[in-house]
What does this fold into?
Amino acid sequence: MIDNNRTIKNLAQLNIIQNAPSSALLDLYLVKQGESIADVNPNGNDINPLTIAGFTVEADSYDVVVTGPSDKTILAGPETVQMDAGHLYRILIRDPQGGGSPPVIVITEEGTQ
It folds into this structure.
């Protein structure tokens, strides 16, 4: 049995909400300082509108970048976030006010696990 509510040292919980219907599919990258999206795979790829996904990441400072699907052209970001161990973060990708493109990234800390 796996205990999904257990806090694991050095990990932060991350929820991604893709709420940008004008953008269709999107890729999301979390890159550490000194890294480039050209050198890494996306943390979330082909994310459909109205999708919610969650996973854990190593506690660290990241730049959040959004691109088109299988395309490393930046649509939004980088937005820097410090993710602390045992904390829950939400990354909301949404259309800008009034709709249309490019998408906007909103990052919030939702508390501790």
